[in-house]
Amino acid sequence: MSALLTIRGLATHFPTQLGLVKAVDGVDLDVMPGECLGVVGESGSGKSVTFLSVLGLVRAPGRVVAGSIRFDGQELAGPDPRAARALRGRAIAVTLQDAGTALNPSMTVGNQILESLGAHDPGPSAADRRRRALDMLRLVGIPEPETRFEDFPHQFSGGMRQRVMLAIALACRPRLLIADEPTSALDVTIQAQVLDLLAELRARLGMTVVLITHDLGVVAEHCDRVAVMYAGQVVECGPTRQVIDLPSHPYTRGLLDSTPDLSRLDRKLRPIEGQVPELIALGAHCRFRDRCGLAEPRCDSAVAMRAVDEGHSARCVRAGEDQRSVRAGETP
Amino acid sequence: MRFGVVLERLAQLIPVLFGVCLVVFLMVTLTPGDPVEIMLGNERSTPEQAEELRRQMGLHLPPHERFFAFIGNAVTGDFGRSFFHRRPVIEVIAERLPATLELTIVAMTIALGLAIPLGILAALKRGSWLDRVATMVSLAGVSMPGFWFGIMLIMLFAVHLGWMPVSGRVDYALEVPRLTGMILFDSLAHGRFDTFRDALHHILMPALTLGLAMSALLMRVTRASMIEVLQQDYILFAEAKGIGRARLILRHGLRNALIPTVTVAALETGYLLGGNTIVETVFGWPGLARVIVEGIFSRDYPLVQAGVLVIALIYVGVNFVADLLYTLINPRVKL
Ligand SMILES: Nc1ncnc2c1ncn2[C@@H]1O[C@H](COP(=O)(O)OP(=O)(O)O)[C@@H](O)[C@H]1O
Ligand SMILES: [Mg+2]
To answer: Is a pLDDT exceeding 60 seen at residue A240?
Structure first.
């Protein structure tokens, strides 16, 4: 099966006063049709910038400086920005982390849905668009859509706003939805509702979903495959079960060790020591070297992705050669 | 907005207006100079005649009685008679108000017409030469004294080049029947395009003097607010919907960025409607501010008191309307 979205060697840099921030630096990713791909990593690891690059929405002075982004065979990272523009909202949609700031405060939610429809799928009449917009509100579970249609975003609760944002994003039935941290801004009780809704919509609309999160628990429950990002690179990628059962990069191991597990309360959480490196003036060495308990001389030169298993690879010199040594830090 | 809120707002105005009346009354009363002497001027008159005039004008009463008489009459809509014009002051003011109103409308149109497009462009092309030029011009506009700019305009376009009339509202030969008192409007209503052209010619320089000064601040406000709005998440989200660039900038950007601009524009309009003493004087514009200045020189107490009260009323009125407008463009605010 060929991928719906293929990212190769993507590099997105931001010139700043302190120097060139290499927010995304050589990312390779495949998103298969129909799957839910989880993208995890600490905040600042380049998850959002990677997918804003896909949409052609990196803000100046930031720029995609290298790489290829192919959606359904079509190149989006080429010199013509119209390629990405033509797909935005129609074939590829996005939801942002905080619906409280992502919705236009001076526009009714009804009009914000109608606007998406008007841009890509006007249909025969205004009445028809209105009916479809109401259907969207109903689909995402907004009670009394007819009355809420004329309401402004601030008149909704946080969870309802997240649903409204989904309704807007999905209005034109995109093939790919990029959900950027859909639950990070929500109360824990609401988080599960929104994730369940996302899963239900994915099944009903047959969408492919990229679920960006920093919560491995969410990935374990909802994603078929997972890509772990660290300091602007993908450091491990594979089927969710395999990556969780057999983490092949010390960073993934560290993420797992610092994720609470209610079924193993006796287990001690172990946060990863140190901090994400500055994305300016990074050396060629493994980016996790300075935080890694297993660092060795080989880590001083550049490390490529190495296959661990069928469809599972990691950016570690030990990956695939000696599993026990990577997992040496495992808590008994 | 609820009716009760409107009433409450109006009730809040009473102490404000009372305060304005008191301050104006004190200032007028404490200004040295006797209106009777000024009115009689060089004419030979006996002390008896002067005393008689003083009695007619109510000036024989002690100040506090005069103040309460003024308030009492004002409440019933009677602002007294002008000493100088010898007719009800309200008539004099009503005659002059349209000139100021007309100047305000044209000046504000110029100001907004320049400020909003330039503010948007400067925000979109931040750091470009266009942004730098616009910022410099607006800095000059804010700091340039209006009378100096007005005089420069007159010297260049009226005196030197002879393209523009030096002063007044319209050529006297061209008076049109009075409808609203705003000559531009009245001449159009009567189909008098010659008068319209002439009035436009007259109003251009004073309106430009006021408008450029106003547009400077408005442009800076629009630019700053547009820059802030364009960084918001909702702009990114709207762009991700794949809508056109014009719609993105106007409907999502400008619509939200205009909220502070409207607030400043309303304050400036209130200020302009009070009449600009310097501009009305430099351009011989027979508006509200000029009539008050004339009233001060002739110690025309009733005229000055009523004139200032009208300005205060206009100012609070405009701000009230601005608040209403604000709730319209910013759905998050409820009065
Ligand atoms: N406009 C920008 N200017 C400079 N640096 C930026 C900008 N946007 C993002 N970055 C940098 O890119 C890195 C990755 O950001 P992001 O993709 O938002 O992280 P994530 O979504 O994984 O939390 C961050 O370290 C951040 O400093
Ligand atoms: Mg992010």
So the answer is: yes
Domain ranges of chain B: 17-75, 96-329
CA distance A244 to B104: 71
- Whole-angstrom distance, CA of residue B120 vs CA of residue B235: 15
| Exposed/middle/buried for residue A331 (C-beta within 10 Å: 0-12, 13-18, 19+) | exposed
B256·A115 Cβ contact <8 A: no
Atom 24 of ligand 1, residue of closest alpha carbon: A44
Does the B96-329 domain belong in CATH 3.90.360.10? no
Lowest mean pLDDT among A168-177, B52-61, B183-192: B52-61
Burial B175-189 (b: 16+ CB within 10 A, else e): ebeeeeebbbbbbbe
A122 touches chain B (CB under 8 A): no
Number of H helices, E strands in chain A: 12, 12
Amino acid at residue number B312: A
pLDDT in tens, B84-138: 888 899 899 998 999 999 999 999 999 999 999 999 999 998 888 888 988 888 8
Q: Residue A60 CA: which ligand is closest?
A: 1
The predicted-structure confidence for A108-123, as pLDDT tens digits, reads as follows: 999 999 999 998 888 8
Asked if residue A60 has its Cβ within 6 Å of ligand 1, the reply is no
Neighboring chain B residues of A152 at a CB cutoff of 8 Å: 331-332
How many alpha carbons fall within 13 Å on the CB side of residue B29? 17
What is the CB neighbour count within 10 angstroms for residue B75? Answer: 8
Q: Are B120 and B226 in contact (CB under 8 A)?
A: yes
